[in-house]
Amino acid sequence: MSSETKPILYYDDRSPPVRSCLMLIKLLDIDVELRFVDLFKGEQFGKEYLALNPQHSVPTLVHGDLVLTDSHVILIHLAEKYDMKGNLWPKDYEKRMQVLNRLFFECSFLFRRDSDFMSAIVRQGFAHVDVVHHERKLTEAYGAMESYLENNEYMAGEQLTLADLSIVTTLSTVNLMFPLMRFPRLQRWFTAMQQLDAYKEANCSGLEKLRHTMEHIGKFQFPTTEAKVEE
Ligand SMILES: N[C@@H](CCC(=O)N[C@@H](CS)C(=O)NCC(=O)O)C(=O)O
């Protein structure tokens, strides 16, 4: 693998894991070629894409001979290559493990629950979705994040890391439906994240597109919009 080769990111920016990668690319000003894969047209099932990523998901990053098919690994790889100061992916072992712990939380707990909810809306239409069930699952995840912030400014310590980028895009998606009122530390952290240029430039438009798509397919309206969140 040559790190001089330009990375290629296969993306659909309605996807929260994609938006985390886009935020990092903005933050580190990485020169990346972007190739759109329209999830709602089923382009992830195309033969060529499946050969690259049999999980038929976005994001996928191709960097030289390396093919990475999970946003968390992509974040780590790009930080290893381009975050020379080690701010977002700390050089200190314990701090790094803390970041990794939160990335796994996002992957296996928060995103999974968000994805279960969104998939239910797409499959069944909103009118048939057990919203109370999903609200319980997702507010439990809010509670976990509220405790992560008990002694820390950010999700994995006192500085912005990959953990915050990974979590915030999914959180912003869940927040379209379930507000953060009962979670003051999480609300404060989210408001701070919304001020980042990388958030404004790499999360807002994909989030808005997702909202439109979900409302159209699910035949309903989310109670919250990003504009309302920022008030
Ligand atoms: N753990 C993966 C999850 C990726 C994922 O599930 N992406 C969804 C969009 S949010 C997707 O591509 N779904 C299309 C499909 O499964 O066919 C990551 O973080 O990259």
Question: How would you describe what is shown here?
Answer:
- This protein has 231 residues and is an alpha+beta fold.
- The chain folds into two domains: 8-82, 3-Layer(aba) Sandwich (Glutaredoxin), CATH 3.40.30.10; 93-230, Glutathione S-transferase Yfyf (Class Pi), Chain A, domain 2 (Up-down Bundle), CATH 1.20.1050.
- The chain is built from ten helices and four strands.
- It has a four-stranded mixed β-sheet with strand order 2-1-3-4.
- Strand 1 (8-11), helix 1 (16-28) and strand 2 form a beta-alpha-beta unit.
- Helix 1 packs across helix 6 (162-174), helix 4 packs antiparallel against helix 5 and helix 4 (93-124) packs parallel to helix 6.
- The longest helix is centred in the middle third of the chain and has 32 residues, at 93-124.
- It is globular.
- 39% of the residues are buried.
- Residues 227-231 have low confidence and may be disordered.
At the third CATH level, what is the topology name of the largest domain? Answer: Glutathione S-transferase Yfyf (Class Pi), Chain A, domain 2
CATH level 1 name of the largest domain: Mainly Alpha
Q: How many strands, what sense, and barrel or not for the largest sheet?
A: 4 strands, mixed
Order of helices and strands: EHEHEEHHHHHHHH
Strand residues, percent: 5-15%
Low-pLDDT windows of residues: 227-231
Strand-pairing-aware structural class: alpha+beta
Fraction in helix:
55-70%
Mean pLDDT: 95
Radius of gyration: 17 Å
List strands and helices in order, with pairings.
Blueprint: E1 8-11, H1 16-28, E2 33-36, H2 47-52, E3 60-63, E4 66-68, H3 71-82, H4 93-124, H5 131-148, H6 162-174, H7 184-194, H8 197-202, H9 204-218, H10 226-230
Parallel strand pairs: 1-2
Antiparallel strand pairs: 1-3, 3-4
The structure holds glutathione.
